[in-house]
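Input record (Table S2, row 298):
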Amino acid sequence: MRHFLTLTDLTHTEATQLLARATELKTLYRAGIRNECFRGKVLAMIFEKSSTRTRVSFEAAMAQGGGSALFLSPNDTQLGRGEPITDTARVLSRMVDAIILRTTTHDRLTTFASCSQVPVINGLTDRFHPCQLLADVQTFQEHCGSPQGKIVAWIGDGNNMCNTYIHAARLFDFQLRIACPTGYEPLPELLAEAANHITLVRDPREAARGAHLVTTDVWASMGHESEHAARKAAFKDHQVNAAVMSVATPEALFMHCLPAHRGEEVSAEVIDGPQSVVWEQAENRLHAQKALLEWLLR
Ligand code: CP
Ligand code: NVA
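Output record (norvaline complex):
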């Protein structure tokens, strides 16, 4: 039994096979071919933070594969009335085949997983968002081939997405250039572990120069809403706009995990422009997670 709590839960071979399967599943889906790979399976989905893409992609994946998904929020389960997360894990895992948890701290996720008898999937924590990176790397590969040796520019907050890009840089062997303001760096232990794959700079154009992919995320993640004004000031020079994209390779892609704030971390002309693949990136959540579920439920 395996969990998927961070990208480091996959070997390079497993990740490569999983993403090849994701692209295969996408082709089948687009051809109208459905398989009942999840028949009789139930996925419990606990969301302690908001979600559009993660929730819908997992729910649709289970339904399209002949299984079912249960959406559970703290508002209408006993979690919201103080039942320990450990007890919830013990109970749910006796009833369902896998559980996805989107929660506040990464420790809460690992504690939950340690009490679960079935695979647990990280649906986002304060530290990591590995499901998103499966879709991002799938999207990159479909446009540009293998990410190995390529240059990826991360512009903005050193947040859960940035931390996960660091894991991805090691797993898929690409160079990650991170441009973030002072005080908003990713986890120092990750930077130390991935030193051969990471360059940390301050200037977005320096990060984007010659990049094959430019990516960013919101300036204030869920849980940091009260810091929005201070962050807006700190990040004002860290917008992905035409000037930043102009120094990347001419065929560079733009990605954003979404939801996006046009005029803040990305200009409208970039996210709605010809280099942006954000809608396909969002769609690939469905296909990559089907491949992940197949792998975990096999
Ligand atoms: N990118 C992403 O995880 O989106 P949601 O918050 O809508 O799930
Ligand atoms: N960094 C963002 C990602 C949302 C998908 C957040 O944690 O809110």
